[in-house]
TrEMBL record:
Protein name, UniProt field: Protein kinase domain-containing protein
Domain Protein kinase intervals: 1-66
SUPFAM superfamilies attached to this UniProt entry: Protein kinase-like (PK-like)
Domain of life: Eukaryota
Amino acid sequence: MRFDYLAMELLGPSLSELRRSQPHRKFSLSTTLRLGEMMLRCIRAIHRAGYVHRDVKPVRPLHCHF
């Protein structure tokens, strides 16, 4: 049996750390929507490459370069 996997490096601060640095400790609606769209694009790219991300959580965002 063969298992393919990706090991990803932690790059920069977590979304929780970034959120805490914002005024009122939260992101604006436009920032939240942009972050969500970016994360979905990354997940789509991973799926198209034949991988499945099994532990998607807001504290584990994906960084993709298109």
